[in-house]
Amino acid sequence: MEHINKNAPLPPALDYAFQAKEFQALPKQGGLREQPVKLMIQMRVALNVWKAVSSYISAPNSAEWAQNNHETWEVAAEALSIAEQYGKQE
């Protein structure tokens, strides 16, 4: 699965989210209510951002997509802006 910088490792929360989805298993032993709340929130946020950016990148017409998906575009635009800033620091 791709993310913004293909050479960088996945953020841990996103990696856990992909693994949980792929293996249909939670990151820690036990049920949902036994999972660390902070980790579960980080996984959900990371997955939501990844979905927003992926949706934008894969759109045939990005301008039209952004207009039709305003809230998702705001998330994707912020993530892309942060990625651009971070990339310039390396």
How many runs of DSSP E, i.e. beta strands? 0
Q: What is the number of independent domains? A: 1
Order of helices and strands: HHHH
Rg computed from alpha carbons, rounded to a whole number of angstroms: 15 Å
- Average pLDDT across residues? 89
Overall SS class:
mainly alpha
> In which range does the helix fraction lie?
55-70%
In DSSP terms (H or I, runs of 4 or more residues), the helix count works out at 4
Please describe the biggest sheet, giving its number of strands, its sense, and whether it closes into a barrel: none
Show unreliable segments: none
* Separation of the first and last Cα atoms: 23 Å
**Residue fraction in strands:** under 5%
What overall geometry do the principal axes of the alpha carbons give?
Answer: elongated
Keywords for this entry:
90 residues, mainly alpha
Task: Produce the secondary structure layout.
Blueprint: H1 12-23, H2 37-58, H3 62-68, H4 70-89
Describe the structure.
It is a single chain. The chain is mainly α and 90 residues long. It has 4 helices and no strands. α1 (12-23) crosses α2 (37-58). It is elongated, with a radius of gyration of 15 Å. The mean pLDDT is 89.
Quick gist of this model?
With 90 residues, this protein is mainly α. It is 68% helix and 0% strand.
